[in-house]
Fold this sequence. Notes:
Strand order of the largest sheet: 8-11-7-12-9-13-10
Radius of gyration: 20 Å
Oligomer: single chain
Distance between the termini: 48 Å
Number of strands: 13
Largest sheet: 7 strands, mixed
Amino acid sequence: xxxxxxxxxxxxxxxxxxxxxxxxxxxxxxxxxxxxxxxxxxxxxxxxxxxxxxxxxxxxxxxxxxxxxxxxxxxxxxxxxxxxxxxxxxxxxxxxxxxxxxxxxxxxxxxxxxxxxxxxxxxxxxxxxxxxxxxxxxxxxxxxxxxxxxxxxxxxxxxxxxxxxxxxxxxxxxxxxxxxxxxxxxxxxxxxxxxxxxxxxxxxxxxxxxxxxxxxxxxxxxxxxxxxxxxxxxxxxxxxxxxxxxxxxxxxxxxxxxxxxxxxxxxxxxxxxxxxxxxxxxxxxxxxxxxxxxxxxxxxxxxxxxxxxxxxxxxxxxxxxxxxxxxxxxxxxxxxxxxxx
Length: 341
């Protein structure tokens, strides 16, 4: 195990290895059903119940949600990616934290997960795979989420993540299509982990501040948002702050104004970005959002940091959350989905 660098066995790293958002939307066009589409439980008199599908793929939410019975919704999601850290245990923790974040982003609580593992068993020792799984198990345990098996395949490059099931109150779900004008925007984690992950992959240098961000659960921020009555938001992952803000604004029919000076960014990431440590995924994010946004107030490096492909990033919420920075506001639609100030 000594000397092996996990990040060298995958073409991408973390959420930067996602299919670009524009290509993904083209791929899925016409292949998904808009909610509501699934009949709910039958009523006591035998008549069909109301639709059980509360949130589907129509707006690009982080997960799907279905009403099971009364005030109970079940949330389902899956997330996996190539190594984002050379240390396999750390990669496992990050990947599991990231997968559970989709449940937290909708105001839910993860209750069960199954592992998703692809492993080049003739190239990498299985002991490393065990460390990845151990990291995922520890992250899930810290969230109070049970891990119950999973699925594994022999593959050309390593991939790890989880399919996660969670629960929520259907009347208190947080979705991307409910952002209302006049509402402040809150961001619960600093940006920049994508920049530092790119530098880590290139040099092997470890950035503890980036690891800390990526292994911190969005649990507390999610619970506080639900308690505060916030009903619009998402988590910031592979499409960057700009990409996820664009999706919220588009689904809600509003403009998200972001004050660039108020957006928290890891100090080391600013330096690394200025020196060109930008992933291809972040550049593709910016190219996707630029035609729909007014980015004139930002220089190129700032815009790329705002488009930085985050792994296990924070929550972007339409509402104020004490203890976290307000980074902008929701405006009536003004011709651009995102406005930088």
